[in-house]
Amino acid sequence: MTTVKLSDDREFQQMTPEQADALFASLAVLDAGIRRAAAETDKKIADLKKNFEERTADDLEQCKILAERLKAYIAAHRGRFVRPRQRKTPFGQYGLRTVTDTKIIDEQFVMAFSDERRLGLYTVTRKIDKNAVGRAIEQYGEVPGAKIVSGDVASYTVSKSVLDQQTKQ
Q1: Whole-angstrom Cα distance, residue 121 to residue 115?
Q2: 134, 148 in Cβ contact below 8 A?
């Protein structure tokens, strides 16, 4: 039989607070660098989007005007779009398409109609309310299939001064 070691905390039991501080300092500097790089990337993306919008603003306006004119042509000549419904060109096609959509005006009426005839026209989604379960456990002592679990979470917070220092670099 082979034994597999899942964890070994002997090294960390021997670690001094100063060594842990140094470990955290390395982590904080790396974390701040990653955040700085993410902020730089976000700024570059925002700049690219702004540049794109500025470069294409006139073209976008022209597209809207041309699309409105094409729509007016199609509306004025509906008879030309019976068969075929779309006019094909080397650039693509334009014309009319038949679309259908089901509109729900009153959900309660639809559900009542479905229930009367057992049609299954809707679904019911059930979701556990964890806060309500927690209150029930506190009130009744237990809820089968649920329990409250408490524990410690190791965490760290990088000082804003480290983040600011990374931004200046």
Answers
A1: 8
A2: yes
Strand partners, 2: none
CA angle 85, 89, 91 (to 5 degrees): 120
> What are the angstrom distances between the C-alpha of 138 and each of 49, 141, 151?
52, 6, 17
CB-CB contact of 38 with 166 (8 Å): no
The answer to whether the CB of 94 falls within 8 A of the CB of 86 is: yes
Q: Domain map of the chain by residue range?
A: 19-99, 101-147
Amino acid at site 127: K
Closest by alpha carbon to 96, among 74, 64, 63, 76? 74
pTM > 0.70: yes or no: no
What is the pLDDT tens value at each position of the chain, 169 positions in all? 777 777 888 899 999 999 999 999 999 999 999 999 999 999 999 999 999 999 999 999 999 999 999 999 999 999 999 999 999 999 999 999 999 999 999 999 999 999 999 999 999 999 999 999 999 999 999 999 999 999 888 888 888 888 777 777 6
